[in-house]
Fold Glutamate dehydrogenase.
Amino acid sequence: KRKNPGELEFHQAVQEVLESLEPVIEKHPEYKKAKILERIVEPERAITFRVAWMDDKGEVQVNRGYRVQFNSAIGPYKGGLRFHPSVNFGVLKFLAFEQIFKNSLTTLPIGGGKGGSDFDPKGKSDAEIMRFCQSFMTELSKYIGPDTDVPAGDIGVGAREIGYLFGQYKRLKNEYTGVLTGKGLKWGGSLIRPEATGYGCVYFAQEMLATRYETFEGKICVVSGSGNVAQYTVEKLNELGAKVVTLSDSNGYIYDPEGIGPEKLEFVKELKNVRRGRISEYAEKYGVGYFEGQKPWNVKCDCAFPSATQNELGSEDAQALVNNGCMLVSEGANMPTVPEGVDIFLNAKILYGPGKAANAGGVATSALEMSQNSMRLSWTREEVDEKLKQIMKSIHKSAYEASKEYGHPGNYVLGANIAGFKKVADAMIEQGLI
Ligand code: NDP
């Protein structure tokens, strides 16, 4: 904390990981000797840069760009770009740090990184978004590459932004490579990548449910957010016979007791991805409740899927979910639950899948996109979906087995941190003092 003042989210993420690792460090003195913990909390490289661009009125705007290249022990840095006014070093360091363990859990050869800008895409025209992306990539291109660092999307960075970023990279480098993932299908993207985080989060939840001989059939689910992760979480839950009754955005949430079925979900996709409108429009269109400024955690449910942003689920929210009989929480977002909330879930012994395990399907499928790009071929939808399913199963298995080995079966926080850490720590030792 002394070294990184004010980086609250980073402190929060590091504290959780280091606490879970205590028994591992005790069992493995070689990690202590090699000062792995001291090394693993220090990014290998972190860059900030000026992003100057011109708005539609001809006025100059200035934002700050970042890339945190945290750990490359097991592969090139990999992690999304976030465009949101709340972005700062602390937020990106937390995300990049989490990404190290998440990427390791996927079993694929990818290191941890994250980047973005405090740029706010809301209310900007397509032309403004393009000019911003081009300026951002002009600097970022100096530090990334298909074998060095392969960014992807995150909050505020979807298909449109990846397109503009890729176009500018190609123009600057004169090469057509898989330097970004989440690309359009016609130009190197992978089938299932848009769906992967949401689908994967539900696959992970299915595995957790199976440990209690349960399925999604007839389960009432609450989902927060209404962006990429939330949309495909709803899609998969619908397929599996669950009923999703909420969605939200930064202004409030909607409650639809009839369920957000496939047709209503199509409306949400068009509303959010094409018109870039507010979720309150859903309430107007379908005549259901809209709760301005509130989050959906007081709604009675069997399962909850926080899919918006960090620390969106407070300790009172966690208590409300438990009191209302919620039996499963699977995190589509990164670190959406505050630490006290996590303790409430763990003490109540509900099935709790932390983001670093539950939402790893997105980055795993990004790594599959990288493989396809390198081989210059494309797998079918079924092939990618099957690989995603198997990866989520194996993440669940390794997190569950680690939780058992260390005496807390079913504690996926502990299990995911330990299973993700070991491979990276061993690689760091084997590669010498770097
Ligand atoms: P999107 O930008 O597509 O959607 C984000 C959603 O969350 C929007 O509904 C947005 O509302 C809401 N939101 C964002 N910030 C806030 C905030 N400060 N308070 C309340 N609501 C907020 O992003 P994604 O769906 O891609 O990402 C959602 C989460 O999932 C993030 O935590 C991300 O890191 C994580 N994640 C994403 C992956 C991916 O593949 N996309 C992979 C793994 C994790 P509004 O429309 O009002 O902005």
Residues 84, 86, 153-156, 158, 197, 225-229, 249-250, 307-309, 312, 332-334, 359, 362 surround NDP (CB under 6 Å).
